[in-house]
Amino acid sequence: MINTFGQFGGTAIEDAWQHLRGFLDICRAFKIHGVHQDVLRLRLFPYSLRDRAKQWLSNQPTGSFNTWTELCKDFLDRFSPSNVTDRLRNEITTFRQGVDEPMYEAWERYQ
Predict the structure, then answer these.
(1) Where would I find the Retrotransposon gag domain in this sequence (predicted)?
(2) pTM, to two decimals
(3) Dihedral over Cα of 48, 49, 50, 55: its sign
(4) Is 90:82 a contact under the CB 8 Å cutoff?
(5) Contact assessment for residue 88 and residue 17, using Cβ atoms and an 8 Å cutoff
(6) Which tens digit of pLDDT belongs to each residue from 24-45?
(7) Residue 20 and residue 43: Cα distance in Å, rounded?
(8) Are 9 and 50 in contact (CB under 8 A)?
(9) CA 44, CA 39: separation in Å to the nearest integer?
(10) Of 40, 12, 11, which is closest to residue 23 (Cα–Cα)?
């Protein structure tokens, strides 16, 4: 199922943020009783990578990532150019719900 949405190879034309969004969408489909989502994501994430990105993750020392947040931060630091990060940060911090806009419409527009 993970390979269905496409693996991330770490090239300049690939969008690391988009890869994470797609990966998280797939992970939401997995609910294993007694398994925290962080653990599931950390275990499945290597299968979503190929080429340079897979090599990068393989080269990280064992125990480098104890949380999904830590892995995401390092992944984005490595594979997301700063201009993309700055643009996304600006989109997030300036997003506003319209005066008469229902929350679900604002959420759809945001995504």
Answers:
(1) 43-110
(2) 0.69
(3) negative
(4) no
(5) yes
(6) 999 888 888 888 899 999 999 9
(7) 14
(8) yes
(9) 9
(10) 40
